[in-house]
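Deliverable D2.4 — example input (structure tokens):
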């Protein structure tokens, strides 16, 4: 065996190690921006997974909710057959296109980003909601709430939800009155609804 062979092998091994280090550094620099974007998307998906997943039961009542324009009034009549807790929420629907479509709606609806390279926005949608519930018989207002920048609180198979409030109701006929103050151009094209749901659904 050539006595100088081990020395040559050591030199070659050192050269290869240096080459790998330089290559890794160049590759890291080239893909730093792509990695930041990917990490931001992963963080959003993780945040969604940490949200409560609500059941797929149909809402007690639901109506379309326009998000463009400074002011817009909506109303929704509904009946309650069983006494219990009920919630009013805003529903943001996303298409069946995987996490990217859901991520877009999440961001448009005011979901927070964990991307350290971005200036953090205020959480919640870019509008307020003035809502009340009245009894159809007699027109008595039984509940009123002003919600600033509704914040996402749960999600389902095809929608994200921002609960506005919940209250106990007895059997009867009611009307939900909702006034949006402000607007959200970011949600243009997204199907948005307001619904009354059974607050006792498992999460």
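Example output (designed residues):
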């Amino acid at each position: 065996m050539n006595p100088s062979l081990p020395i040559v092998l050591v030199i070659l091994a050192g050269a290869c190690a240096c080459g790998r280090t330089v290559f890794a550094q160049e590759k890291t620099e080239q893909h730093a921006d792509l990695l930041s974007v990917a990490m931001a998307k992963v963080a959003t998906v993780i945040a969604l997974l940490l949200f409560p997943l609500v059941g797929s039961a149909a809402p007690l009542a639901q109506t379309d909710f326009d998000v463009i324009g400074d002011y817009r009034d909506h109303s929704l009549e509904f009946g309650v057959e069983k006494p219990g807790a009920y919630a009013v929420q805003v529903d943001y629907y996303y298409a069946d296109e995987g996490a990217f479509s859901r991520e877009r709606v999440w961001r448009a609806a005011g979901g927070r980003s964990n991307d350290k390279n971005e200036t953090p926005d205020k959480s919640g949608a870019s509008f307020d909601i003035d809502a009340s519930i009245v009894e159809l018989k007699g027109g008595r207002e039984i509940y009123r709430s002003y919600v600033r920048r509704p914040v996402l609180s749960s999600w389902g198979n095809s929608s994200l939800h921002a609960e506005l409030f919940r209250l106990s109701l007895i059997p009867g006929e009611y009307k939900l009155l909702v006034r949006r103050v402000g607007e959200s151009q970011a949600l243009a094209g997204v199907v948005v609804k307001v619904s009354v749901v059974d607050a006792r659904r498992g999460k």
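Helices lie at 5-30, 32-50, 99-108.
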